[in-house]
């Protein structure tokens, strides 16, 4: 570069135009740096990870409102019936509480059902003639249904066997058949009538002309008891004495098992005995 050119460059550097040019370049670079900083800040905030709140135990509507404020979305994935708990309560969630997630993340929740589950009676096991205790356990374990005995009836078979099953007055099963169309709510009761060795009715036997020993044997076999014994004359051996009369009378009527039969006895066998 010649001395003349160097002189011109020095004059230009000292000029106002040069200073304006440098200032414009600095301003431009400043604007570029500021724009880059702001863009990076927005980008970083957009990808920021947030701690997932714990919504378990909350009502679904309340949890949804809170999640929306926090820029999350929420969806019901499943619902379960829980005995004794109201419907619409969040039982579990995905993602789990305290996990780090990004904004606008979908939260999948499982809630309690608002109505009780129902089971059609046709799905229940065969119960007529089966052990009450065994079926009671089976209904509780597999169907969440409770059982209770509302009556017992005499049956010549084993005691504790199911004679009939009812739900809210409707017969599900009995000796006459089975109804498979009854809707039963989980957690509700089925009513059972079961067999017993006592409690039935038997016909009043005719004890006339029998010895007291024979009468006692007959009464025991049909689940009746010997009541009061009235001696009509002098008797030395009561077992061999004869029945003269009885109460209640043998008229074909029925009495409850374990009821007493009162008799009058004599050592003399009546003339009308054959």
Description:
A hairpin with a 2-residue loop joins strand 9 (170-174) and strand 10 (177-178). It contains 5 helices and 17 strands. Mean pLDDT is 86; it is low at 42-46. The longest helix is centred in the first third of the chain and has 31 residues, at 16-46. It is α+β, with helices and mostly antiparallel strands and 274 residues long. The strands form 6 sheets. The chain has a 5-stranded mixed sheet with strand order 7-12-8-9-10. A 3-stranded mixed sheet has the order 2-5-3, covered by helices on one side. Strands 14-17-15 form a 3-stranded mixed sheet, covered by helices on one side. The protein has 4 domains: 3-46; 49-112, 2-Layer Sandwich (Trypsin Inhibitor V, Chain A), CATH 3.30.10; 118-196, Trypsin Inhibitor V, Chain A, CATH 3.30.10; 201-266, Trypsin Inhibitor V, Chain A (2-Layer Sandwich). The protein has helices at residues 3-13, 16-46, 60-69, 132-143, 212-221, and strands spanning 49-51, 73-80, 90-94, 100-102, 106-112, 118-120, 146-154, 162-167, 170-174, 177-178, 183-185, 189-196, 201-203, 225-231, 242-247, 254-256, 260-266.
Concise structural overview:
The protein is an alpha+beta fold.
């Amino acid at each position: 570069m010649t001395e003349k050119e160097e002189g011109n460059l020095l004059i230009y550097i000292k000029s106002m135009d040069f200073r304006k040019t440098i200032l414009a370049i600095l301003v431009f670079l400043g604007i570029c740096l500021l724009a880059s900083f702001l863009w990076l800040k927005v980008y970083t905030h957009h990808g920021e990870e947030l701690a997932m709140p714990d919504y378990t135990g909350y009502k679904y509507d309340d949890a949804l409102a809170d999640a929306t404020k926090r820029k999350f979305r929420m969806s019901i994935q499943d619902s379960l019936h829980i005995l004794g708990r109201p419907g619409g309560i969040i039982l579990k969630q995905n993602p789990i509480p305290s996990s780090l997630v990004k904004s606008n993340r979908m939260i999948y929740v499982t809630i309690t059902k608002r109505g009780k589950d129902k089971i059609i009676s046709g799905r229940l096991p065969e119960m007529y003639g089966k052990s009450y205790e065994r079926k009671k356990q089976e209904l509780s374990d597999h169907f969440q249904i409770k059982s209770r005995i509302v009556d017992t009836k005499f049956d010549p078979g084993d005691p504790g066997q199911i004679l009939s099953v009812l739900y809210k007055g409707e017969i599900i099963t009995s000796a006459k058949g089975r109804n498979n169309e009854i809707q039963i709510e989980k957690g509700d009761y089925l009513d059972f009538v079961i067999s017993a060795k006592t409690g039935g009715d038997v016909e009043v036997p005719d004890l006339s002309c029998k010895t007291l020993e024979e009468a006692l044997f007959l009464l025991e076999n049909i689940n009746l008891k010997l009541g009061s014994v009235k001696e009509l004359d002098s008797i030395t051996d009561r077992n061999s004495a004869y029945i003269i009369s009885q109460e209640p009378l043998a008229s074909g009527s029925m009495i409850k098992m374990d009821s007493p039969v009162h008799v009058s006895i004599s050592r003399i066998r009546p003339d009308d005995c054959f």
